[in-house]
Design brief:
single chain
Length: about 130
């Protein structure tokens, strides 16, 4: 997955991605979990008492500072995919979130939601 450098244009690109996510969710578009993401959510529920509404809240509250990797700036993909690092749930568990927005549609597809295996640098966090 591509790592965008910290520039005003890239900050704006990530902000547009986040704004579009919020817009879709506010109009009732639901997040679709891949099988992998569903399995990971089951583990999060067992280990940290994290549920779907926690994931949804985390996504709504993402900022550009949570950015980790993603978005192909070429505009040639079916989905714009981005990964973030944020905290979630009552215990403020650090979590890796990777999801995509369908370019020519409304889908929000969650690919991954789990505790990271290693520290995640956040290049837009200043």
């Amino acid at each position: 997955m591509i790592l965008l450098p910290y520039t005003p244009d890239n900050i704006a690109l990530i902000q547009e991605f986040l704004d579009e996510t919020r817009k879709r969710m506010s109009t009732g578009v639901e997040i679709t979990f891949t099988q992998k993401a569903s399995d990971e959510l089951q583990e999060l529920a067992l280990d940290f008492d994290i549920e779907i509404h926690d994931i949804e809240s985390a996504i709504i509250n993402l900022t550009t500072e949570n950015y980790y990797r993603g978005i192909d700036p070429s505009g040639n993909a079916d989905f714009n995919v981005c990964a973030f690092c944020t905290t979630i749930g009552k215990g403020n568990t650090v979590i890796y979130l990777k999801y995509g927005l369908e370019v020519k549609g409304l889908h929000i597809l969650l690919f991954s939601n789990h505790v990271p295996d290693y520290p995640m640098p956040q290049p837009f966090k200043h």
